[in-house]
User: Which sequence fits this backbone?
């Protein structure tokens, strides 16, 4: 009887172990969407959406991205990779950049004074 139970339990134990290993690997992998922001992108969320759930703007390319009609508090999530940075700039075309958000980080910021975002690779 014990042997039958052991044989029956072995596949279940193996399945649970495999699930734990897979889950642990998936959680540790850096390539993942984050609060609806695709991996490799920078996302801006609607005003006062807290917590961040569904982005209103998604930016994929390096360079300047001008903002319009972004007032009040918004989440800005940097889900880029390889240390890429997003800078928040007071003027259009990525001029007068005053702060930055590192890859894998986000900030809940008043975007009223921010007129552009500058996505750039990490400089050594």
Assistant:
């Amino acid at each position: 009887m014990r042997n039958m139970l052991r044989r029956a339990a072995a596949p279940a134990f193996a399945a649970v172990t495999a699930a734990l290993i897979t889950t642990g690997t998936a959680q540790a992998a850096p390539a993942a969407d984050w609060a609806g922001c695709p991996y490799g992108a920078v996302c801006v969320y609607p005003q006062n959406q807290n917590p961040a759930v569904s982005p209103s703007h998604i930016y994929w390319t390096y360079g300047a991205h001008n903002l319009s009609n972004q007032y009040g508090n918004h989440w800005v999530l940097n889900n880029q990779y390889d240390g890429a940075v997003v800078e928040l700039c007071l003027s259009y075309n990525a001029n007068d950049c005053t702060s930055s958000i590192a890859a894998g980080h986000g900030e809940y910021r008043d975007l009223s004074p921010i007129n552009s975002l500058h996505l750039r690779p990490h400089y050594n």
In short: Residues 1-29 have pLDDT under 50 and may be disordered. The longest strand covers residues 85-91.
